[in-house]
Amino acid sequence: MALSRTASESDVSVHSTFASRYVRTSLPRFKMAENSIPKEAAYQIINDELMLDGNPRLNLASFVTTWMEPECDKLMMASINKNYVDMDEYPVTTELQAR
Question: Do 77 and 51 share a structural domain?
Answer without folding.
Answer: no
